[in-house]
Prior knowledge:
The protein has 468 residues and is α+β, with helices and mostly antiparallel strands. 54% of the residues lie in helices and 17% in strands. It has helices spanning 3-15, 25-67, 84-93, 131-134, 136-141, 161-167, 217-220, 228-234, 256-268, 286-289, 291-329, 331-339, 344-375, 377-399, 401-405, 428-445, 447-454, 458-466, and strands spanning 70-74, 102-115, 118-127, 143-147, 156-160, 174-181, 200-213, 223-227, 241-247, 281-285. 33% of the residues are buried.
Amino acid sequence: MNFKSSLLYASRIIFSKSSNKNSGIGKKSLIGSMICIGISLIPLVAVLVISNGMVSGITGRMINLGSRDLSIYISSKSESVKNLQTFVHTAEEFNKVQGITDSFAEIQSTGLALKNKTRCGATIRAVQNDLFTADKNYSSLFKIVEGSAELSSSRDCILGTQIAEKLNVHPGDSVNLVTVNIPEGQKNVAAGNGDSLNVLPRTTPFKVKGIVSSGYQELDSLWFFIPLETGFKILPAKSSSFIISLSTNDTFTNKLYQIQENVQQRIYGTDWENSDSISGAYIYRWDQINKAQYENFASTKILLLLIMLLIVLVASVNISSALIMIVMERKKEIAILKSVGASSSGISLAFLATGFGCGLGGVLIGIPLGLLASVNINGIIHLFEKILNGAVKFFLVLFNSQNGLHFNQIHILDPAYYLQEIPIVISFSDLFIIVAGTLLLSLLVSVIPAVKAGREKPMDTMRGNYAV
């Protein structure tokens, strides 16, 4: 019995039509196993695509809007940050470094935003006036909710959606920003010498020009953007971070280490005493700054995929029980094949091919349906949210009319912790691994019934059938 004959017999097992109800139980079990594998693959593919989209979407925003590919932190005592012109010029010099595409100067600090009697903590980001248009990442990842993203005046500001909601402000409104002010005569007072610093609050009024959102509230919830020149005037140097953000062509390139080396040579010069060196400067890659978050996302993704793979494994075990039932139903048929010259290995190969075909059928069912669910996942989530909120509102109105009209909307994925819209990222390499793994599992669970079928003894079967 050659390979072709084994495949023909396997196709007869899968596609044959039996008029005997009892002899068709194994065939029905095999079809059921195929459907189970297909159904189990749908959530696996959906989880893969969603997790890839969530991880890439969140990390992409954290890198491109926050830490950037490379970040240079400069001491406030450095001559490179003594004034606005020097700081901007220092940042522009890094555009000459090989591998760097863009560089932007920024000051980060903290303060308190006030509007009437409402107050809110703010993460202050003093940036270049044209950042939202000059930086392709800001222009593509930020969504302008209200107003415009232009810092045309020294007292203009741009707010994140959450801080704008807390303060109840809109474009054109005024908002006060409270920062720390250390009088000039006390800036050189040494800490710990018994002298006390007279720290005074500085209140600066700003006009809201726009409200923006990156789609990930945990990242931009407290961002308060102001012009860089204003940052030099109102932000305390000692408690602020002077940062030069650097972008490259590919955030995830293996050459990022080499680019970091190139930047370090520019920072420190050919030697530590080089006059072009920048004192008190340290450079970090994005994976060093966001290491904890990135590893957390990666481990969560692996855990979810492992759970889904266990579901596929359980579904694959059904193939083994279905094949064992088919072997029991086809004992006489196997005996006849062996009596006319079929080999044990040929029979085993036929049942292995049957299990493989069952797994392949499950793949052909599950992968397309999983991809279909994945590309429409945002619409599916919104539909479930509408149904869930409608049901909750109905029962609240039914039992308590007052609370039924005003209740907090339920979000399956809370935008305060997740992306407002899930990006669709399909990794064909990961899909290939899923397909190969499913087919391999189908073969493995088919080994025991296939070996059992190959060991069937035709004489024992014939005696059992014709015994009086």
